[in-house]
Amino acid sequence: MELLLDPNHLAILAIIGVIAGFIDAIVGGGGLLSIPALLAMGIPPHLALGTNKLAACFGSTTSSYTYYKQQLFTPMFWKTSAIATFAGAILGCGLVFLLKAEWLEKLLPLLIISIAIYTLFSPKAMGGNHCVSPRKAPSNTRQGLQGLILGGYDGFAGPGIGAFWTVSSISLHKLPLLESCALARVMTLISNITALVIFAFLGQVDWLLGLWMGVCMMAGSFIGARSAIRFGIPFIKPLFIISVVSIATHLAWSAWV
């Protein structure tokens, strides 16, 4: 713990927290930076996931509120999605604690790299400008399946969950890009809070580091959400991919080689 409280490490986590919050608010995937940063500093996998959930709640709350104030999210349309996300997050958290720490340490880098590669090469990952705002609630079946699967993934691990929400919402519900980002932020807030309660109950949250990163992610999310609304997101994709692949490759090398 003394090592983690070193000013240099706290400064690094602060910088990564701001960047992760910024990216998360725009396209999702801030966990692709924050989780590897925690793991790289020697925090055990389960504790890193729980600590990241605490930090992510700050950023998700800020960006969700910002999108809502801009009328990019209509709560009454997404009740089924919210309930399914909550249930999925509980199931995902239960699964992650069935895995041994050493297995999780080896699995996380592979998940992170896979998601980064998908985001890089998927032609629809940043699309959606041709879509239109819904005038009624989308299909409950689609909402339920999407919420259960993605809520479960966020409860299980979570890196890149915002990107998955954004991409799948464009595909399933034909939402415009900014509305997909707004839905992603609100639903990940639900799964983040659900998972945080479970991780905290099991003693897998470093509150000091989580609060420190959370404040930094909140600042990044505030800037990121406003930037997304004003400028769009094409400028962030190259930096996002380069950063993610670099950190994930380092973790994979450490865990597997």
Describe this structure in words.
Belongs to the 4-toluene sulfonate uptake permease (TSUP) (TC 2.A.102) family. Its main location: membrane. It is a multi-pass membrane protein. It is found in: Cell membrane. Keywords: Cell membrane, Membrane, Transmembrane, Transmembrane helix, Transport. With 257 residues, the protein is mainly α. It has helices at 7-26, 31-40, 45-69, 79-96, 101-121, 140-156, 161-173, 177-201, 207-231, 237-256. The radius of gyration is 17 Å and the shape is globular. The two termini are 26 Å apart. The model has no long low-confidence stretch (mean pLDDT 81).
Give the helix/strand layout.
Elements: H1 7-26, H2 31-40, H3 45-69, H4 79-96, H5 101-121, H6 140-156, H7 161-173, H8 177-201, H9 207-231, H10 237-256
Membrane topology: Multi-pass membrane protein
Protein name: Probable membrane transporter protein
Keywords: Cell membrane, Membrane, Transmembrane, Transmembrane helix, Transport
State the shape. globular
- Spans with pLDDT under 50 lasting ≥5 residues? none
Gyration radius (Cα, Å) is: 17 Å
Chain-averaged pLDDT:
81
Number of strands: 0
Strand-pairing-aware structural class = mainly alpha
Number of helices: 10
- What percent of residues are in strands? under 5%
What's the story with the biggest beta sheet? none
Task: Please give the share of residues in helix.
Answer: over 70%
Ends apart, CA distance between termini: 26 Å
What are the secondary-structure elements, in order, as H or E? HHHHHHHHHH
Organism: Shewanella subflava
Pfam family, one: TauE
Subcellular location: Cell membrane
Transmembrane segments: 12-35, 80-101, 107-126, 182-201, 207-226, 238-256
